[in-house]
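Why do we care about 3D structure at all? Because function follows from shape, and shape follows, mostly, from sequence. That is the central idea of this module. The next example makes it concrete: a single protein chain, its amino acid sequence, and then its structure expressed as tokens.
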Amino acid sequence: MGLLKTITATLSGSDRFSTRLADQASEAIGFREETFGPLGAGWKGGSADCPAFRNPLDEKSEHLLTYDSRTNKPVGYLRVTSAHHLLGATDPIIQSALRHFPASVHPFVTVWHWMGITSPGNEAQIRQSLCAAAYSHCLSGGKAALAVAASTPSELAEYRRLGFRPLGRVLASEIGGHALPVFLDMHGYQSLKLLDSPLYEIAKELGFPPGKIGSNWYQEFIFKNGSIDTGYTRYQAGADSTEFHSALTEGLKEGARKQLLTNALHLTCRFGETVLADSAHDTSIGIVKKGALEVYLEQDLIAVLGEGDVFGELAFILGGKRNASVRAASEDTELLVLSRKVVDTLKSTSDQLQFWRNLAALVAKRVVSANAALNDAREAKTSAAMPGTR
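And the structure:
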């Protein structure tokens, strides 16, 4: 309880929310059923067939509850299940995630699913508290090396700041709306430190337990999926565009920052709409203000970008044709797009130079992030071994 209390204080800045394993599974399952009750009412076959309601998988899972100290009542729920129990899962998000792992790896993968939150306005704090508690529990118990969860497009930035990375495209979710699978390398300590993730402090307090999957498969998996792009963008939720603070505008004079963002093109895109086409001659750079984008190289999905992420930076720097296409992956995706002309209108040479320094730093951080992820995989390979994946 001491560590989880520390986690809660770190994430929320107070002791209002505390997360722990449910003392009674029945209390946790009852809260989940109440939270997802409307979903069960419309489920094909009736609520008895809805996975949100009591089912045999509950006995093979662990249940986390977040409590509000002001009411002493639960306000958040998360089910933690080993992947080898979910081979017949109907959730397309979980199916999409698990297909990336060979069967021999499934016992080392934990799935965090059926997250439910009932405290409006506190969703981000409770979500992070649930994830942090699940991470602490799984890491200290030595039960898993990878964690998989489902993120809505609007939540992707939060998951990324914790250290999660996208693992596939945005799909229709069985509980409505859209979501995408994300995964966390639980022993990726270099990456967590680089991201300044609160999970790093948990790992540090636990003594950085060694990795669980030492294999060529794991190293290749991290190399392919290990690009960590948190966007390096900061802005206040609900602020208007002129109050948007981005890594691209860091260090600019206040007047220059407002001029740049006011003159940016503000776009709202529908799900599936092409934002940037490959082979197009375009030297603009964009920032995701709301929602998510998918980046394709021909027909292959190569990245999913969430709120705060920057896109189009290479064509902006190098000019010429774009080699990838970008599509909106959420309803009402909001973007800020800056053209070279808008940047060149900055009156001060020092402001123009600062913008380009910021852009160079962003690109460099992406390279450093990818290298950190690969180094984590290499260390895991040398610190552990798992039969069947060499």
